[in-house]
Amino acid sequence: MRISTSMIFDQGASAMSRNVSDLLNTQAQLSSGKRVTTPSDDPLASAQAVAVSQAKDMNAQYATNRGAATTALQLEDQTFGSIINTLQHVMSQVVAAGSASLNDNDRSAIATDLQASYQQLLSLANTADANGQYLFSGFMGGSAAYVATPTGASYAGDTGIRYVQVAAGRQIPINDIGSNIFQAIQPATASTVISGSMSNTGTATFTPVSTTDVTNAGANHQFSIGFAIDSTTTPPTTNYTIKDLTDTTVPDVTGVYTSGQPITFAGKSVTFTGDPATGDTYTVAPAGKSSTNVFDNLQALIDTLKTPVSAQGPTGSANLSNALTTFNQLFGNTYDNVTTVRTTVGSRLNELTTLGDIGSANDLAYTSQLQDLLDVDIISATSQFAQQQASLQASQQTFIQTQKLSLFSLL
What we know:
7 helices; single chain; alpha+beta; 51% helix
């Protein structure tokens, strides 16, 4: 076989070009730290890296969303803390207003203090975030949640819950509805509410109602308790009649009243002390059928404390004491509801923390996968670079020696 001079030169140049290309490619890998710089370097690894990168980017977006959700819920939690403090102050003032040593002016001063609590509570209900969005207005974040009325305040938002995608399969609510906070109760724990008419003329006062049998058929019914004095007996006898206002077919419960002795009916028990008058009436109702709007209740309390009762004597004192007992129950139910809702906020914050830990672990896993797919093995690449240098030098030396095979060198 005859080997031409041009063939020798072509093969030598091709070998050196190939070695130089390989050397430069390895050098580029060592410089960038990447084994795959173009899809052609490793098509399979490139395709896998695209999928992993997408997953990593989504994980990063979830982390951003979790940060935003955490900020929103932390603000809500702080607001709940202030709401609870305000309610505690209101309930302490209810107790203080019941002191027998206070006169009408003293109670009016407490009412003035409670007016400030009302304004503070209304301001907290209309708390806005850094973007000016009201926390408790639902989807109507641009409008205040509550609007003051002559009798208290009314909810002006909607029932929308804003969700944020915080993980691949998890959306978390970042707001709570104002009406579920300031106008709701927890049915499982809320106490039954008893109230008396301010027009009662007797001196009887009541204790909060206790539930002795939650399975009783009338557990969630509304009742009226009426008193009447039978003057035909000696001495006169005070009788009570309890009517089921929810189911009027239920027979009335009747009995002779004794001050300080519990009156039981429909799985409930209540104790009156003092002397009721004929026609005095009282209502016993489940918490959900009583007033649950904390603003209306607070305004009603303020109005009650501003109303003079000293001139009414023992009757006025008894009616005031009963009203304060009722208000204490109403605010206690609201307090229980707010603390329960706040607990759910804490649970969501804990979940975000857990999801954040999982997201951080996933990010490390994705980073490791990408390194395995794309990053260069420094030790292997360094060794390969040395081999390619040697190959290039060998091809260069071979080409030089091949040049000497010409017959012209023998002339």
